[in-house]
Design brief:
The complex is a heterodimer of chains A (151) and B (530).
Chain A lengths: L5 H8 L1 H9 L7 H4 L4 H13 L1 H34 L1 H4 L2 E3 L2 E2 H46 L5
Antiparallel strand pairs in A: 1-2
Chain B lengths: L2 H26 L6 H6 L6 H12 L2 H14 L1 H28 L4 H6 L4 H34 L5 H52 L4 H12 L16 H17 L4 H4 L8 H32 L2 H7 L6 H9 L6 H41 L6 H25 L5 H25 L5 H20 L26 H18 L6 H13 L5
């Protein structure tokens, strides 16, 4: 499953441009200052979206992948560094030919990094991207409505 | 090293400088002078282009020459570095790249300041970003100076000084005239050159051993004089417990520091969406991982073919292992092949340093103009003048880096890089993660976590054996060494996290639910991203 980057469409429809123009206004306002007047209402939009089931599902999917995977690779890396510095004897044990435990563990770190990168990218692409994109447009529609369609 | 090497290397390097200056002028043709263009290159790079640029920003001469040299001298212990440098990218991919792209505009401070009272947070994050950048910059400048001395035989102090000044002047030109767009293209060109050179050498090493990696390892172990223990950890960091803790500290700094490096964070703003940021990190991990795998082959290859004694004889830190290997692979000293390969390696190393310093200068000038200047003199700062400030800041940072680079000329560069990573991990990463993920985080927590990581990290280095109390220190004459480790990460990274937590729980300010909701929604969906 693959779909195009929404940005190029977005540029064509002009919302990204208009944002930039607003930020470059005469008094040098940045995006954050620009929000000040309709801040209250826009803040409600974000709270509302945050409480919505769709957003909570996206967040849950993100966390359920990132927290275990992050904890696992960090523990594996720390274990590797600590073992290499404190137990060189164990690491020197031969496995096959000139290759020893240390070499296998080191190359294992490379391998797990590549695998986790692939798994994360796949998970994000299949499980999060579409839902996040829909939420993005919905949220922007809502905030634009609050601002009175000015942008 | 004969005159032939030098002439050819200088010629190739001049060609690189000419090409990069051409890129800078070409890119600058249609300059409109907007902040978007200067800091983020218009945000229209493709994931593949940005992936190459990230890899170009990250693979410094320290990895190309330094890590292979360490492997050639100490065997397996050098490999520990490459693992740390690569695994760090998982932190960036999982926790930082997409969310930072969605929430920020140009700098790290943008992400944090969106939720907090802006001024103090911007000043804190800006200060720590500039500190990290300057440390990293000085390391690269010093590296450039000693590289010239090593590769071109110009061992005189004048040659080193002029190299530092020349590199500084070039990076200021790239950055202030070309902005992010020129810097990105320079990174891409450099990454292609560096990977091309590395692949060539790796293939030649493997051909020499008929593709038998086992044979390569055994020959390396045999020639090293250490036998089997050359292939296991412990030769460099296996001494007393101080050395071991020092390595664990460095390992932590490497894996957590990457995600806090300002010049890496600013790269995510050059692509249009979070999805593109993710894909550029995937590209970068592939390129960087492949590169570090090849440095392992080059390191053991140098040990097996050149031999650690010859490497050590040329440069005690091992930095010339790869150039010497290239000379041998090309057919030995005096042969045409050897001369050409050696010159190519030397030119690639220069190109590497130039590109990396340009990236860092750009990121730190963004911090100065967008964070520090904009919060200190906000009313007068218009977007157009902000870019003017950034261009001026690039010149100022260039001058500071040149001055410090000349002062620190005799310093070991590896420690400076480790230190930059340690400061980034202690001061930048805690505040970034807290503001992205912690609902209750407050302004005081943010400010405390930046200074609570930055101050201990810098202070511990001042009190470490790096600065005083041992023959290799910066000031060998005096002794105010109270902290045993060279790298402060083991202590200062936890302190940064604790300080942020402490500042938050002790502050009277109620966390702003709505701002947190906004950060969370924006970071995960990309709503309202620029």
């Amino acid at each position: 499953m693959r779909y195009d980057d929404p940005w190029y469409d977005a540029l064509a429809s002009g919302w990204g441009e208009s944002d930039g123009v607003a930020a470059g206004g005469p008094e040098g306002a940045s995006a954050r200052q620009e929000r000040e007047t309709p801040a209250v209402a826009a803040a409600d939009v974000y709270l509302e979206v945050q409480r919505s089931a769709a957003f909570q599902e996206v967040r849950r999917r993100y966390r359920r992948f990132v927290i275990p995977a992050g904890a696992a690779f960090f523990a594996w890396y720390v274990a590797y560094v600590v073992t290499a510095t404190t137990a060189p004897g164990l690491m020197a044990r031969p496995v096959a030919g000139a290759v020893n435990v240390a070499m296998v563990a080191g190359l294992g770190q490379f391998l797990t990094t590549f695998l986790l990168t692939w798994a994360y990218a796949r998970h994000a692409r299949l499980r999060r991207d579409r839902a996040a994109l829909e939420l993005r447009w919905d949220t922007q529609e809502l905030t634009r409505g609050v601002r009175g369609g000015a942008s | 090293m004969t005159g032939n090497h030098q002439t050819l290397a200088l010629l190739l390097f001049s060609a690189f400088v000419a090409v990069t200056l051409a890129i800078t002028t070409w890119v600058g043709r249609h300059r409109r002078g907007s902040a978007e263009e200067f800091y983020a290159g218009g945000r229209l790079f493709s994931p593949m282009e940005n992936g190459f640029a990230i890899a170009g920003d990250y693979m410094s001469a320290a990895s190309f020459l330094g890590i292979s040299g360490l492997i050639a001298l100490f065997g397996y212990d050098g490999l520990l570095y490459s693992v740390g440098f690569l695994v760090a990218w998982l932190v960036v991919l999982f926790l930082v790249a997409e969310l930072v792209r969605n929430c920020g505009r140009f700098t790290l401070a943008d992400v944090v300041a969106a939720r907090m009272r802006e001024r103090p947070v911007r000043i804190a994050a800006g200060t720590s970003s500039v500190t990290v950048s300057v440390l990293y910059l000085v390391a690269q400048m010093v590296g450039a100076g000693s590289l010239v001395a090593l590769l071109l035989g110009g061992t005189g102090e004048a040659a080193q000084s002029w190299t530092v000044i020349g590199v500084g002047a070039l990076m200021v030109i790239y950055v202030s005239l070309g902005g992010m767009r020129a810097t990105t293209w320079i990174q891409i060109v450099k990454a292609v050159l560096l990977l091309g050179g590395t692949v060539t050498l790796t293939v030649l090493v493997l051909v020499r051993f008929h593709g038998d990696f086992d044979h390569l390892l055994l020959t390396a172990a045999e020639r090293s004089g250490h036998g089997e223990s050359f292939l296991a950890p412990g030769l460099k960091y296996g001494g007393d417990w101080t050395a071991r803790f020092d390595f664990i500290s460095l390992g932590l700094a490497l894996v957590l520091g990457t995600a806090g490096l300002p010049h890496i964070l600013s790269r995510f703003y050059t692509v249009p969406t979070a999805r593109a940021a993710r894909r550029s990190v995937v590209w970068a991990i592939g390129l960087i991982g492949g590169f570090y795998l090849m440095t392992i082959v080059l390191g053991f290859g140098a040990a097996a073919i050149v031999g650690p004694d010859a490497v050590r004889g040329s440069n005690a830190a091992g930095n010339t292992a790869v150039p010497l290997l290239a000379l041998d692979l090309g057919g030995g000293a005096g042969s045409t092949g050897g001369t050409v390969l050696f010159a190519i390696v030397a030119a690639v190393a220069f190109a590497t340093i130039l590109a990396v310093v340009a990236g860092i200068t750009l990121a730190s000038s963004a911090s100065v103009a967008h964070d520090l200047y904009a919060s200190l003199r906000r009313r007068r700062a218009k977007p157009r003048s902000e870019v003017a400030v950034a261009r001026t800041a690039a010149v100022g940072i260039g001058v500071v880096a040149i001055a410090l680079g000349l002062l620190a000329r005799d310093l070991n560069v590896a420690f400076l890089v480790g230190l930059a990573f340690a400061v980034a991990a202690s001061a930048n990463l805690p505040v970034l993660l807290y503001s992205l993920f912690w609902r209750g985080f407050t302004t005081r927590g943010a400010v405390w976590s930046v200074y609570g990581g930055l101050v201990p990290a810098v202070l511990l280095v001042v009190l470490s054996p790096v600065v005083s109390g041992s023959p290799e220190s910066l000031f060998p004459g005096v002794d105010f060494q109270y902290f045993p480790l060279q790298n402060p990460g083991l202590v200062s990274i936890p302190l940064g996290f604790v300080a942020g937590w402490l500042g938050t729980v002790t502050s009277a300010e109620l966390p702003d639910e709505a701002k947190h909701a906004e950060t969370e929604v924006r970071s995960l969906t990309g709503a309202g991203a620029v």
